């Protein structure tokens, strides 16, 4: 199991955020097993399905089916990707955070990548991710996984002021200023 840690620091003087990511493996052997299954057993199953399909409907028909699903899948992913981008822009235009729409966009991108990958199972997975109801189920599963495995910590940091004063409190009045001229004194 992997735990993803995201730590956010707020730098008071600059007003910016510092983000640090880190992933810590709890069981590297399980990770190696998952990668082995993904990159060896997965393609073997895909090849077996393609050979089975090739012997039953013909080799040229199988190749045509793989190419057709790749082209149709890429076109559908592009169409839904454009729709997702427009939804993101609408949410931003209303001043709202487009988290759900961005998540849709990532899943549509994953669907497009697996659809252009030759294979039967990858095509089924890709077309499944292009169906909004199935995509919502996948999003809820990923959210529950993230709640269990992603830890977010936020902290505030401030630097000492040169004259020894403490950092301003949230109730202090902030005055907007503009720099008109600067010069270096030696």
Brief synopsis:
The protein has 186 residues and is α+β, with helices and mostly antiparallel strands.
- Judging from the principal axes of the Cα atoms, what is the shape? elongated
Task: List segments where confidence is low: pLDDT < 50 over at least 5 consecutive residues.
Answer: none
Strand and helix order = EEHHHHHE
Can you count the beta strands?
3
Largest sheet: 3 strands, mixed
Rg (CA only)? 25 Å
Q: What count of helical segments does DSSP give?
A: 5
Structural class: alpha+beta
Widest sheet: strand order? 2-1-3
What portion of residues belong to β-strands?
Answer: 15-25%
Distance between the termini: 58 Å
Whole-number mean pLDDT: 77
In helices, the fraction of residues equals 55-70%
What do you see in this structure?
This protein has helices at 28-57, 59-93, 99-116, 120-130, 132-149, and strands at residues 2-11, 16-25, 150-157. The chain is elongated. It has 186 residues and is an alpha+beta fold. It has a three-stranded mixed β-sheet with strand order 2-1-3. 10% of the residues are buried. It has a domain at 29-149. It starts with a strand and ends in a 29-residue tail after the last strand. Helix 1 (28-57) packs across helix 2 (59-93), helix 2 packs antiparallel against helix 3 and helix 2 (59-93) packs parallel to helix 4 (120-130).
